[in-house]
Protein backbone atom coordinates (compact mmCIF):
# COMPACT_ATOMS: atom_id res chain seq x y z
CA UNK A 1 0.00 0.00 0.00
CA UNK A 2 1.79 3.08 -1.26
CA UNK A 3 1.17 6.78 -1.12
CA UNK A 4 1.13 8.49 -4.49
CA UNK A 5 2.93 11.79 -4.06
CA UNK A 6 6.69 11.44 -3.87
CA UNK A 7 6.63 7.65 -3.80
CA UNK A 8 4.99 6.80 -7.12
CA UNK A 9 5.48 10.33 -8.46
CA UNK A 10 8.48 12.66 -8.47
CA UNK A 11 7.08 14.97 -5.77
CA UNK A 12 8.22 17.90 -7.89
CA UNK A 13 5.13 19.97 -8.41
CA UNK A 14 4.76 22.52 -11.20
CA UNK A 15 1.71 24.70 -11.70
CA UNK A 16 0.17 23.64 -15.00
CA UNK A 17 -2.91 25.87 -15.23
CA UNK A 18 -4.92 28.45 -13.33
CA UNK A 19 -8.67 28.80 -13.79
CA UNK A 20 -10.34 31.95 -12.50
CA UNK A 21 -13.33 33.98 -13.65
CA UNK A 22 -14.11 31.17 -16.14
CA UNK A 23 -10.81 31.79 -17.97
CA UNK A 24 -7.95 29.29 -18.07
CA UNK A 25 -4.29 30.37 -18.07
CA UNK A 26 -1.87 27.58 -19.04
CA UNK A 27 1.73 27.49 -17.82
CA UNK A 28 4.28 25.86 -20.11
CA UNK A 29 7.36 24.13 -18.76
CA UNK A 30 10.67 25.93 -19.39
CA UNK A 31 8.79 28.98 -20.71
CA UNK A 32 8.32 32.41 -19.08
CA UNK A 33 5.25 32.71 -16.90
CA UNK A 34 2.31 34.23 -18.81
CA UNK A 35 0.94 37.66 -17.97
CA UNK A 36 -1.86 37.22 -15.46
CA UNK A 37 -5.05 39.27 -15.64
CA UNK A 38 -6.43 40.73 -12.43
CA UNK A 39 -8.49 37.73 -11.17
CA UNK A 40 -5.66 35.31 -11.84
CA UNK A 41 -3.09 37.64 -10.26
CA UNK A 42 -5.28 37.86 -7.16
CA UNK A 43 -5.42 34.05 -7.04
CA UNK A 44 -1.63 33.72 -7.47
CA UNK A 45 -1.00 36.32 -4.75
CA UNK A 46 -3.40 34.49 -2.44
CA UNK A 47 -1.48 31.24 -3.07
CA UNK A 48 1.77 32.97 -2.12
CA UNK A 49 0.30 34.34 1.12
CA UNK A 50 -1.57 31.22 2.27
CA UNK A 51 1.70 29.35 2.07
CA UNK A 52 4.28 28.06 4.55
CA UNK A 53 7.08 27.57 2.05
CA UNK A 54 10.18 29.68 2.70
CA UNK A 55 11.62 31.57 -0.29
CA UNK A 56 15.30 30.96 -1.00
CA UNK A 57 17.75 33.03 0.98
CA UNK A 58 19.93 35.61 -0.74
CA UNK A 59 22.13 33.79 -3.20
CA UNK A 60 20.11 30.58 -2.83
CA UNK A 61 17.98 28.92 -5.45
CA UNK A 62 15.87 26.33 -3.64
CA UNK A 63 12.85 27.22 -1.48
CA UNK A 64 12.14 25.17 1.62
CA UNK A 65 8.79 23.53 2.28
CA UNK A 66 6.15 21.22 0.91
CA UNK A 67 6.49 20.63 -2.86
CA UNK A 68 2.90 21.77 -3.46
CA UNK A 69 3.49 25.07 -1.69
CA UNK A 70 6.86 25.52 -3.39
CA UNK A 71 5.12 25.16 -6.76
CA UNK A 72 2.53 27.80 -5.81
CA UNK A 73 5.30 30.10 -4.63
CA UNK A 74 7.21 29.65 -7.89
CA UNK A 75 4.12 30.39 -9.99
CA UNK A 76 3.46 33.59 -8.07
CA UNK A 77 7.11 34.64 -8.29
CA UNK A 78 7.09 33.96 -12.04
CA UNK A 79 4.19 36.39 -12.34
CA UNK A 80 6.14 39.05 -10.45
CA UNK A 81 4.47 38.49 -7.07
CA UNK A 82 7.10 38.30 -4.36
CA UNK A 83 6.04 36.57 -1.15
CA UNK A 84 8.35 38.79 0.91
CA UNK A 85 6.83 41.96 -0.52
CA UNK A 86 3.31 40.64 -0.11
CA UNK A 87 3.91 39.69 3.51
CA UNK A 88 5.35 43.09 4.31
CA UNK A 89 2.09 44.68 3.20
CA UNK A 90 -0.17 41.87 4.38
CA UNK A 91 1.41 40.32 7.49
CA UNK A 92 -0.11 37.06 8.66
CA UNK A 93 -1.95 37.52 11.95
CA UNK A 94 -3.79 34.21 12.30
CA UNK A 95 -4.02 30.81 10.69
CA UNK A 96 -5.94 27.55 10.71
CA UNK A 97 -3.45 24.85 9.70
CA UNK A 98 -4.08 22.08 7.19
CA UNK A 99 -5.23 18.72 8.51
CA UNK A 100 -5.99 15.53 6.56
CA UNK A 101 -9.58 15.71 7.81
CA UNK A 102 -10.22 19.35 6.82
CA UNK A 103 -8.08 19.19 3.66
CA UNK A 104 -7.64 22.96 3.67
CA UNK A 105 -5.48 25.71 5.16
CA UNK A 106 -6.53 29.23 6.08
CA UNK A 107 -4.48 32.34 6.84
CA UNK A 108 -5.65 35.77 7.96
CA UNK A 109 -3.74 38.93 6.98
CA UNK A 110 -3.83 42.52 8.11
CA UNK A 111 -3.52 45.35 5.63
CA UNK A 112 -0.50 47.41 6.65
CA UNK A 113 -0.65 51.16 6.98
CA UNK A 114 2.15 51.54 4.48
CA UNK A 115 -0.04 50.71 1.52
CA UNK A 116 -0.02 47.88 -0.98
CA UNK A 117 3.03 47.42 -3.26
CA UNK A 118 2.62 47.21 -6.98
CA UNK A 119 3.72 43.99 -8.65
CA UNK A 120 6.91 45.54 -9.96
CA UNK A 121 7.69 47.09 -6.57
CA UNK A 122 7.92 50.62 -7.99
CA UNK A 123 4.92 52.13 -6.29
CA UNK A 124 2.90 51.47 -3.12
CA UNK A 125 -0.51 50.01 -3.90
CA UNK A 126 -1.34 46.60 -5.34
CA UNK A 127 -4.82 47.74 -6.28
CA UNK A 128 -4.73 45.85 -9.60
CA UNK A 129 -4.37 42.60 -7.72
CA UNK A 130 -6.39 43.33 -4.58
CA UNK A 131 -8.90 45.97 -5.67
CA UNK A 132 -11.13 45.39 -2.64
CA UNK A 133 -8.39 45.36 -0.02
CA UNK A 134 -7.55 49.04 0.12
CA UNK A 135 -10.48 49.92 2.36
CA UNK A 136 -10.41 46.74 4.45
CA UNK A 137 -8.68 46.06 7.76
CA UNK A 138 -7.68 42.61 6.66
CA UNK A 139 -8.60 39.56 4.64
CA UNK A 140 -8.66 35.79 4.79
CA UNK A 141 -7.27 33.31 2.23
CA UNK A 142 -8.21 29.63 2.21
CA UNK A 143 -6.76 26.99 -0.08
CA UNK A 144 -7.50 23.28 -0.23
CA UNK A 145 -9.61 20.62 -1.85
CA UNK A 146 -12.30 22.31 -3.93
CA UNK A 147 -15.05 19.96 -2.77
CA UNK A 148 -14.20 20.81 0.86
CA UNK A 149 -13.91 24.53 0.11
CA UNK A 150 -17.11 25.19 -1.86
CA UNK A 151 -19.51 24.61 1.06
CA UNK A 152 -17.80 27.55 2.80
CA UNK A 153 -18.25 29.89 -0.19
CA UNK A 154 -21.23 32.18 -0.80
CA UNK A 155 -19.87 33.99 -3.87
CA UNK A 156 -17.43 33.59 -6.74
CA UNK A 157 -15.05 35.90 -8.52
CA UNK A 158 -16.04 36.55 -12.15
CA UNK A 159 -15.11 38.92 -14.94
CA UNK A 160 -18.17 40.94 -13.91
CA UNK A 161 -17.01 41.14 -10.32
CA UNK A 162 -18.13 39.21 -7.26
CA UNK A 163 -21.42 37.38 -7.83
CA UNK A 164 -23.48 35.11 -5.63
CA UNK A 165 -22.50 31.46 -5.99
CA UNK A 166 -25.57 29.72 -7.37
CA UNK A 167 -26.03 25.91 -7.46
CA UNK A 168 -25.24 25.94 -11.17
CA UNK A 169 -21.97 27.72 -10.42
CA UNK A 170 -21.05 25.13 -7.80
CA UNK A 171 -21.73 22.32 -10.27
CA UNK A 172 -19.65 24.06 -12.93
CA UNK A 173 -16.69 24.48 -10.55
CA UNK A 174 -16.89 20.84 -9.42
CA UNK A 175 -17.06 19.72 -13.07
CA UNK A 176 -13.96 21.77 -13.89
CA UNK A 177 -12.24 20.36 -10.81
CA UNK A 178 -13.06 16.81 -11.94
CA UNK A 179 -11.90 17.49 -15.50
CA UNK A 180 -8.55 18.85 -14.31
CA UNK A 181 -8.10 15.93 -11.92
CA UNK A 182 -8.95 13.55 -14.77
CA UNK A 183 -5.93 14.92 -16.61
CA UNK A 184 -3.75 13.78 -13.70
CA UNK A 185 -3.44 17.21 -12.08
CA UNK A 186 -3.45 17.86 -8.36
CA UNK A 187 -6.13 20.55 -8.02
CA UNK A 188 -6.46 23.14 -5.27
CA UNK A 189 -9.31 25.56 -4.81
CA UNK A 190 -8.62 29.06 -3.48
CA UNK A 191 -11.11 31.33 -1.70
CA UNK A 192 -10.90 34.86 -0.32
CA UNK A 193 -12.73 37.17 2.07
CA UNK A 194 -12.15 40.77 3.14
CA UNK A 195 -12.81 41.90 6.70
CA UNK A 196 -13.86 45.33 7.90
CA UNK A 197 -12.39 44.64 11.34
CA UNK A 198 -8.92 43.39 12.18
CA UNK A 199 -8.80 39.57 11.72
CA UNK A 200 -6.49 39.04 14.68
CA UNK A 201 -8.35 37.34 17.51
CA UNK A 202 -11.24 36.11 15.36
CA UNK A 203 -12.12 32.48 16.25
CA UNK A 204 -10.81 29.95 13.78
CA UNK A 205 -14.24 28.65 12.83
CA UNK A 206 -15.37 32.21 12.02
CA UNK A 207 -12.47 32.90 9.66
CA UNK A 208 -13.77 30.38 7.12
CA UNK A 209 -17.24 31.86 6.74
CA UNK A 210 -18.72 33.75 3.79
CA UNK A 211 -15.81 33.12 1.42
CA UNK A 212 -15.57 34.15 -2.22
CA UNK A 213 -14.30 31.43 -4.51
CA UNK A 214 -11.35 32.73 -6.56
CA UNK A 215 -10.55 29.76 -8.76
CA UNK A 216 -8.65 26.53 -9.25
CA UNK A 217 -4.94 25.80 -9.52
CA UNK A 218 -3.85 22.61 -11.29
CA UNK A 219 -0.39 21.18 -10.64
CA UNK A 220 1.35 18.35 -12.38
CA UNK A 221 3.42 15.80 -10.47
CA UNK A 222 4.57 13.32 -13.12
CA UNK A 223 5.01 9.66 -12.21
CA UNK A 224 8.56 8.52 -11.59
CA UNK A 225 9.96 6.99 -14.78
CA UNK A 226 10.93 3.81 -12.96
CA UNK A 227 7.60 3.42 -11.14
CA UNK A 228 5.71 1.83 -14.04
CA UNK A 229 8.34 -0.88 -14.46
CA UNK A 230 8.39 -1.40 -10.69
CA UNK A 231 4.61 -1.93 -10.67
CA UNK A 232 4.93 -4.49 -13.49
CA UNK A 233 7.66 -6.27 -11.53
CA UNK A 234 5.42 -6.32 -8.46
CA UNK A 235 2.58 -7.95 -10.34
CA UNK A 236 4.88 -10.55 -11.89
CA UNK A 237 6.20 -11.35 -8.40
CA UNK A 238 2.71 -11.87 -7.00
CA UNK A 239 2.81 -8.60 -5.07
CA UNK A 240 -0.32 -6.48 -5.41
CA UNK A 241 0.36 -2.73 -5.49
CA UNK A 242 -2.32 -0.51 -3.95
CA UNK A 243 -2.33 3.30 -4.22
CA UNK A 244 -3.62 5.30 -1.24
CA UNK A 245 -3.65 9.08 -1.60
CA UNK A 246 -5.31 12.17 -0.26
CA UNK A 247 -5.76 13.55 -3.77
CA UNK A 248 -8.97 13.83 -5.80
CA UNK A 249 -10.34 10.46 -7.00
CA UNK A 250 -9.90 11.40 -10.66
CA UNK A 251 -6.30 12.47 -10.09
CA UNK A 252 -5.58 9.23 -8.29
CA UNK A 253 -7.24 7.20 -11.04
CA UNK A 254 -5.35 9.00 -13.82
CA UNK A 255 -1.98 8.39 -12.17
CA UNK A 256 -2.92 4.80 -11.31
CA UNK A 257 -3.85 4.11 -14.94
CA UNK A 258 -0.56 5.52 -16.18
CA UNK A 259 1.33 3.20 -13.81
CA UNK A 260 -0.78 0.09 -14.39
CA UNK A 261 -2.32 0.02 -10.90
CA UNK A 262 -5.91 -1.18 -10.72
CA UNK A 263 -7.63 -3.25 -13.33
CA UNK A 264 -10.78 -1.16 -13.68
CA UNK A 265 -12.14 2.31 -12.96
CA UNK A 266 -12.93 1.54 -9.31
CA UNK A 267 -11.70 4.10 -6.82
CA UNK A 268 -12.91 4.27 -3.23
CA UNK A 269 -12.80 7.48 -1.23
CA UNK A 270 -12.19 8.00 2.44
CA UNK A 271 -15.73 9.30 2.88
CA UNK A 272 -17.07 6.02 1.52
CA UNK A 273 -14.82 4.02 3.84
CA UNK A 274 -16.07 6.04 6.83
CA UNK A 275 -19.63 4.89 6.11
CA UNK A 276 -18.68 1.20 5.87
CA UNK A 277 -18.62 -1.50 8.50
CA UNK A 278 -15.50 -3.64 9.02
CA UNK A 279 -17.10 -6.42 6.99
CA UNK A 280 -17.90 -4.08 4.11
CA UNK A 281 -14.34 -2.72 4.11
CA UNK A 282 -13.09 -6.31 4.00
CA UNK A 283 -15.12 -6.91 0.85
CA UNK A 284 -13.92 -3.65 -0.73
CA UNK A 285 -10.19 -4.29 -0.19
CA UNK A 286 -10.43 -7.56 -2.12
CA UNK A 287 -11.25 -5.76 -5.35
CA UNK A 288 -9.99 -2.17 -4.94
CA UNK A 289 -6.45 -1.00 -5.71
CA UNK A 290 -6.96 2.80 -5.69
CA UNK A 291 -8.09 4.88 -2.70
CA UNK A 292 -8.46 8.65 -2.73
CA UNK A 293 -9.24 11.43 -0.27
CA UNK A 294 -8.15 9.20 2.60
CA UNK A 295 -6.98 10.16 6.08
CA UNK A 296 -4.38 8.29 8.17
CA UNK A 297 -7.25 6.58 10.02
CA UNK A 298 -8.46 5.10 6.74
CA UNK A 299 -4.98 3.71 6.11
CA UNK A 300 -5.21 1.80 9.37
CA UNK A 301 -8.62 0.40 8.40
CA UNK A 302 -7.31 -0.72 4.99
CA UNK A 303 -4.28 -2.44 6.54
CA UNK A 304 -6.44 -4.23 9.11
CA UNK A 305 -8.90 -5.41 6.46
CA UNK A 306 -6.16 -6.72 4.17
CA UNK A 307 -4.49 -8.57 7.04
CA UNK A 308 -7.83 -10.07 8.07
CA UNK A 309 -8.15 -11.32 4.48
CA UNK A 310 -4.83 -13.19 4.82
CA UNK A 311 -2.50 -10.76 3.10
CA UNK A 312 0.98 -9.72 4.18
CA UNK A 313 0.83 -5.93 4.03
CA UNK A 314 3.51 -3.31 3.54
CA UNK A 315 2.40 0.28 4.12
CA UNK A 316 4.21 3.52 3.33
CA UNK A 317 3.82 6.67 5.37
CA UNK A 318 5.57 9.90 6.27
CA UNK A 319 3.46 11.78 8.78
CA UNK A 320 2.96 11.56 12.53
CA UNK A 321 -0.61 10.33 11.98
CA UNK A 322 0.68 7.51 9.76
CA UNK A 323 2.48 5.86 12.69
CA UNK A 324 -0.44 3.58 13.74
CA UNK A 325 -0.80 2.20 10.20
CA UNK A 326 2.97 1.75 9.88
CA UNK A 327 3.06 -0.14 13.17
CA UNK A 328 0.02 -2.24 12.30
CA UNK A 329 1.35 -3.27 8.87
CA UNK A 330 3.51 -6.36 8.59
CA UNK A 331 6.17 -4.11 7.03
CA UNK A 332 5.98 -0.40 7.80
CA UNK A 333 7.89 1.68 5.25
CA UNK A 334 8.74 5.26 6.26
CA UNK A 335 10.00 8.03 4.02
CA UNK A 336 13.55 8.88 5.03
CA UNK A 337 13.73 12.02 2.92
CA UNK A 338 10.40 13.69 3.67
CA UNK A 339 9.11 11.64 6.61
CA UNK A 340 8.81 12.62 10.24
CA UNK A 341 10.88 11.13 13.05
CA UNK A 342 7.75 9.52 14.49
CA UNK A 343 7.02 7.72 11.21
CA UNK A 344 10.61 6.51 10.96
CA UNK A 345 10.53 5.20 14.53
CA UNK A 346 7.30 3.29 13.87
CA UNK A 347 8.50 1.74 10.60
CA UNK A 348 10.43 -1.46 9.87
CA UNK A 349 12.14 -0.04 6.79
CA UNK A 350 13.16 3.51 5.85
CA UNK A 351 13.47 4.65 2.23
CA UNK A 352 16.29 7.14 1.91
CA UNK A 353 15.04 8.18 -1.54
CA UNK A 354 11.23 7.91 -0.93
CA UNK A 355 10.97 5.88 -4.15
CA UNK A 356 8.45 3.08 -4.75
CA UNK A 357 10.96 1.29 -6.99
CA UNK A 358 13.27 0.99 -3.98
CA UNK A 359 10.61 -1.04 -2.15
CA UNK A 360 10.46 -3.42 -5.11
CA UNK A 361 14.26 -3.63 -5.14
CA UNK A 362 14.13 -4.53 -1.44
CA UNK A 363 11.63 -7.31 -2.19
CA UNK A 364 13.95 -8.66 -4.89
CA UNK A 365 16.96 -8.45 -2.57
CA UNK A 366 15.01 -10.25 0.15
CA UNK A 367 14.18 -13.07 -2.23
CA UNK A 368 17.81 -13.36 -3.31
CA UNK A 369 18.99 -13.52 0.31
CA UNK A 370 16.38 -16.14 1.18
CA UNK A 371 17.29 -18.22 -1.88
CA UNK A 372 21.00 -18.06 -1.04
CA UNK A 373 20.47 -18.98 2.60
CA UNK A 374 18.39 -21.92 1.47
CA UNK A 375 21.05 -23.04 -1.02
CA UNK A 376 23.71 -22.75 1.69
CA UNK A 377 21.70 -24.94 4.06
CA UNK A 378 20.92 -27.54 1.40
CA UNK A 379 24.55 -27.66 0.31
CA UNK A 380 25.85 -28.13 3.86
CA UNK A 381 23.24 -30.75 4.78
CA UNK A 382 23.59 -32.80 1.58
CA UNK A 383 27.40 -32.74 1.85
CA UNK A 384 27.28 -33.91 5.46
CA UNK A 385 24.80 -36.65 4.62
CA UNK A 386 27.29 -37.85 1.97
CA UNK A 387 30.12 -37.88 4.54
CA UNK A 388 27.99 -39.77 7.06
CA UNK A 389 27.06 -42.40 4.49
CA UNK A 390 30.72 -42.90 3.58
CA UNK A 391 31.62 -43.39 7.24
CA UNK A 392 28.68 -45.75 7.84
CA UNK A 393 28.74 -47.84 4.67
CA UNK A 394 32.52 -48.16 4.37
CA UNK A 395 32.93 -50.51 7.35
CA UNK A 396 29.81 -52.45 6.29
CA UNK A 397 31.53 -53.13 2.97
CA UNK A 398 34.60 -54.50 4.71
CA UNK A 399 36.73 -51.36 4.60
CA UNK A 400 38.59 -49.96 7.60
CA UNK A 401 37.82 -46.44 8.76
CA UNK A 402 37.25 -44.64 5.40
CA UNK A 403 38.44 -41.22 6.56
CA UNK A 404 40.72 -40.19 9.40
CA UNK A 405 39.49 -37.52 11.86
CA UNK A 406 41.94 -34.91 10.56
CA UNK A 407 40.81 -35.58 6.99
CA UNK A 408 37.16 -35.08 7.97
CA UNK A 409 38.05 -31.79 9.66
CA UNK A 410 39.98 -30.72 6.55
CA UNK A 411 37.02 -31.49 4.27
CA UNK A 412 34.66 -29.54 6.49
CA UNK A 413 37.09 -26.63 6.70
CA UNK A 414 37.50 -26.45 2.93
CA UNK A 415 33.99 -27.22 1.69
CA UNK A 416 32.03 -25.48 4.46
CA UNK A 417 34.31 -22.46 4.30
CA UNK A 418 34.96 -20.31 1.24
CA UNK A 419 32.71 -22.13 -1.28
CA UNK A 420 29.74 -22.15 1.08
CA UNK A 421 30.23 -18.50 1.96
CA UNK A 422 30.53 -17.58 -1.72
CA UNK A 423 26.99 -18.88 -2.22
CA UNK A 424 25.89 -15.87 -0.18
CA UNK A 425 26.80 -13.52 -3.03
CA UNK A 426 25.09 -15.59 -5.72
CA UNK A 427 23.18 -13.22 -8.06
CA UNK A 428 19.40 -13.39 -8.36
CA UNK A 429 17.94 -16.17 -10.42
CA UNK A 430 16.10 -15.17 -13.57
CA UNK A 431 12.68 -15.99 -12.17
CA UNK A 432 13.24 -14.60 -8.66
CA UNK A 433 10.66 -11.85 -9.29
CA UNK A 434 8.34 -14.05 -11.33
CA UNK A 435 7.46 -16.47 -8.56
CA UNK A 436 4.51 -16.14 -6.22
CA UNK A 437 5.40 -15.19 -2.65
CA UNK A 438 6.02 -18.01 -0.21
CA UNK A 439 3.87 -18.38 2.87
CA UNK A 440 5.32 -16.69 5.98
CA UNK A 441 4.70 -19.92 7.89
CA UNK A 442 6.73 -21.97 5.42
CA UNK A 443 10.04 -23.24 6.76
CA UNK A 444 13.32 -23.30 4.88
CA UNK A 445 13.39 -27.09 4.59
CA UNK A 446 10.10 -27.70 2.77
CA UNK A 447 8.88 -28.33 -0.76
CA UNK A 448 10.91 -31.49 -1.30
CA UNK A 449 14.12 -30.18 0.22
CA UNK A 450 14.57 -33.24 2.45
CA UNK A 451 14.29 -35.46 -0.61
CA UNK A 452 17.00 -33.33 -2.23
CA UNK A 453 19.28 -33.53 0.81
CA UNK A 454 18.95 -37.29 1.16
CA UNK A 455 19.11 -37.96 -2.59
CA UNK A 456 22.18 -35.85 -3.28
CA UNK A 457 23.86 -37.01 -0.08
CA UNK A 458 23.29 -40.65 -1.06
CA UNK A 459 24.62 -40.06 -4.59
CA UNK A 460 27.66 -38.27 -3.18
CA UNK A 461 28.45 -41.12 -0.79
CA UNK A 462 27.91 -43.84 -3.41
CA UNK A 463 30.21 -42.15 -5.95
CA UNK A 464 32.99 -41.78 -3.39
CA UNK A 465 32.73 -45.42 -2.33
CA UNK A 466 32.54 -46.51 -5.96
CA UNK A 467 35.98 -44.94 -6.50
CA UNK A 468 37.60 -46.14 -3.26
CA UNK A 469 36.19 -49.65 -2.84
CA UNK A 470 37.80 -51.22 -6.00
CA UNK A 471 41.14 -49.64 -5.07
CA UNK A 472 40.91 -51.03 -1.54
CA UNK A 473 40.05 -54.52 -2.73
CA UNK A 474 42.92 -54.34 -5.23
CA UNK A 475 45.31 -53.59 -2.35
CA UNK A 476 46.08 -50.06 -3.64
CA UNK A 477 47.36 -48.03 -0.64
CA UNK A 478 46.02 -44.83 -2.19
CA UNK A 479 42.36 -45.86 -1.71
CA UNK A 480 41.78 -43.62 1.34
CA UNK A 481 43.47 -40.64 -0.35
CA UNK A 482 41.33 -41.25 -3.43
CA UNK A 483 38.16 -41.32 -1.33
CA UNK A 484 39.32 -38.21 0.53
CA UNK A 485 39.97 -36.38 -2.76
CA UNK A 486 36.79 -37.56 -4.47
CA UNK A 487 34.67 -36.36 -1.55
CA UNK A 488 36.30 -32.92 -1.72
CA UNK A 489 36.04 -32.62 -5.51
CA UNK A 490 32.44 -33.89 -5.54
CA UNK A 491 31.39 -31.26 -3.05
CA UNK A 492 32.90 -28.63 -5.33
CA UNK A 493 30.79 -30.04 -8.17
CA UNK A 494 27.77 -29.87 -5.87
CA UNK A 495 28.36 -26.24 -4.94
CA UNK A 496 28.50 -25.32 -8.64
CA UNK A 497 25.28 -27.19 -9.35
CA UNK A 498 23.35 -25.75 -6.41
CA UNK A 499 23.91 -22.17 -7.59
CA UNK A 500 20.41 -22.52 -9.00
CA UNK A 501 17.69 -25.02 -8.17
CA UNK A 502 15.99 -24.40 -11.53
CA UNK A 503 18.51 -23.22 -14.12
CA UNK A 504 21.38 -25.29 -15.44
CA UNK A 505 24.89 -24.02 -14.80
CA UNK A 506 25.45 -23.31 -18.49
CA UNK A 507 22.28 -21.28 -18.84
CA UNK A 508 23.00 -19.39 -15.65
CA UNK A 509 26.53 -18.58 -16.72
CA UNK A 510 29.68 -20.10 -15.29
CA UNK A 511 31.33 -16.72 -14.63
CA UNK A 512 28.37 -14.90 -13.06
CA UNK A 513 29.65 -15.66 -9.53
CA UNK A 514 33.40 -15.12 -9.70
CA UNK A 515 33.96 -15.34 -5.91
CA UNK A 516 32.53 -18.87 -6.01
CA UNK A 517 34.79 -19.87 -8.89
CA UNK A 518 37.80 -18.52 -7.01
CA UNK A 519 36.72 -20.41 -3.87
CA UNK A 520 36.33 -23.67 -5.83
CA UNK A 521 39.71 -23.19 -7.51
CA UNK A 522 41.37 -22.45 -4.16
CA UNK A 523 39.77 -25.55 -2.60
CA UNK A 524 40.97 -27.80 -5.45
CA UNK A 525 44.53 -26.43 -5.22
CA UNK A 526 44.63 -26.85 -1.45
CA UNK A 527 43.39 -30.42 -1.77
CA UNK A 528 46.06 -31.16 -4.37
CA UNK A 529 48.66 -29.68 -1.99
CA UNK A 530 47.51 -32.04 0.75
CA UNK A 531 47.86 -34.97 -1.67
CA UNK A 532 51.17 -34.08 -3.32
CA UNK A 533 53.11 -31.81 -0.91
CA UNK A 534 55.39 -34.03 1.25
CA UNK A 535 55.13 -31.92 4.43
CA UNK A 536 51.31 -32.14 4.28
CA UNK A 537 51.27 -35.81 3.38
CA UNK A 538 52.67 -36.69 6.78
CA UNK A 539 50.12 -34.53 8.57
CA UNK A 540 47.05 -35.79 6.71
CA UNK A 541 48.33 -39.38 6.13
CA UNK A 542 47.91 -39.14 2.34
CA UNK A 543 49.88 -40.69 -0.53
CA UNK A 544 50.41 -39.26 -4.03
CA UNK A 545 47.73 -40.31 -6.48
CA UNK A 546 48.63 -41.64 -9.90
CA UNK A 547 47.34 -39.52 -12.80
CA UNK A 548 44.79 -42.19 -13.66
CA UNK A 549 43.48 -42.32 -10.09
CA UNK A 550 43.28 -38.52 -9.89
CA UNK A 551 41.38 -38.53 -13.18
CA UNK A 552 38.98 -41.10 -11.73
CA UNK A 553 38.35 -38.85 -8.71
CA UNK A 554 37.65 -35.92 -11.04
CA UNK A 555 35.40 -38.05 -13.26
CA UNK A 556 33.25 -39.08 -10.29
CA UNK A 557 32.85 -35.41 -9.37
CA UNK A 558 31.89 -34.47 -12.93
CA UNK A 559 29.39 -37.33 -12.93
CA UNK A 560 27.73 -35.81 -9.87
CA UNK A 561 27.60 -32.42 -11.59
CA UNK A 562 26.02 -33.84 -14.74
CA UNK A 563 23.54 -35.88 -12.71
CA UNK A 564 22.35 -32.77 -10.87
CA UNK A 565 22.27 -30.65 -14.02
CA UNK A 566 20.39 -33.37 -15.88
CA UNK A 567 17.85 -33.54 -13.10
CA UNK A 568 17.20 -29.79 -13.38
CA UNK A 569 16.85 -30.10 -17.14
CA UNK A 570 14.31 -32.93 -16.86
CA UNK A 571 12.32 -31.07 -14.18
CA UNK A 572 12.37 -27.97 -16.38
CA UNK A 573 10.90 -29.92 -19.27
CA UNK A 574 8.27 -31.32 -16.93
CA UNK A 575 7.33 -27.74 -15.99
CA UNK A 576 6.89 -26.95 -19.65
CA UNK A 577 9.95 -24.81 -20.28
CA UNK A 578 13.39 -25.58 -21.58
CA UNK A 579 16.38 -24.87 -19.38
CA UNK A 580 19.16 -25.50 -21.90
Features:
single chain; 580 residues; alpha/beta; 9-stranded mixed beta sheet; 3-stranded parallel beta sheet; elongated
Low-confidence stretches: 115-125
The proportion of residues in beta strands is 5-15%
Give the CA-CA distance, first to last residue.
Answer: 39 Å
- What integer value in Å does the Rg equal? 35 Å
Structure in a nutshell:
This protein has 22 helices and 15 strands. It has helices at residues 38-49, 67-78, 83-89, 146-149, 167-182, 204-207, 227-236, 249-259, 270-274, 278-285, 296-308, 323-328, 341-346, 356-396, 405-415, 418-422, 449-473, 479-497, 505-508, 514-532, 534-540, 547-574; strands spanning 14-20, 23-26, 92-96, 104-110, 138-144, 153-158, 161-164, 185-195, 211-220, 243-244, 268-269, 290-292, 314-317, 331-335, 349-351.
Can you describe this structure?
- The protein is an alpha/beta fold and 580 residues long.
- Helix content is 47%, strand content 14%.
- The chain has 22 helices and 15 strands.
- The strands form three sheets. Strands 1, 2, 3, 4, 5, 6, 7, 8 and 9 form a nine-stranded mixed sheet that branches. A three-stranded parallel sheet has the order 10-12-11. A three-stranded parallel sheet has the order 13-14-15.
- β14, α13 and β15 (349-351) form a beta-alpha-beta unit.
- The chain is elongated and about 115 Å long.
- Mean pLDDT is 88; it is low at 115-125.
Amino acid sequence: CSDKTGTLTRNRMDVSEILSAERRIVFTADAPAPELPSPHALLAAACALCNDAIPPAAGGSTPLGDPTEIALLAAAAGAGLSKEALERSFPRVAEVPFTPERKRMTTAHAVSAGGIPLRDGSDPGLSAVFPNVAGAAGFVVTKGAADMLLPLCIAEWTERGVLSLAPAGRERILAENAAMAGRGLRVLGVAFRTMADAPAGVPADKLEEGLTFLGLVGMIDPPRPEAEEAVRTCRAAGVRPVMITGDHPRTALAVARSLGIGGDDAVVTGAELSRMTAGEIGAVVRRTDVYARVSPGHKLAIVSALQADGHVVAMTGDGVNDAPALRKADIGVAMGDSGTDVAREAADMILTDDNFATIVAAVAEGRVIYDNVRKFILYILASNVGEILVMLLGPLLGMPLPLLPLQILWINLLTDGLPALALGVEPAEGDAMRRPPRSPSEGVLTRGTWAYVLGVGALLGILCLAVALPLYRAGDPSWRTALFTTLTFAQMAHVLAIRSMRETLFRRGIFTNRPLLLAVAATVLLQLAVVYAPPLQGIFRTVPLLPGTLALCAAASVALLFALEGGKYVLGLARGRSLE
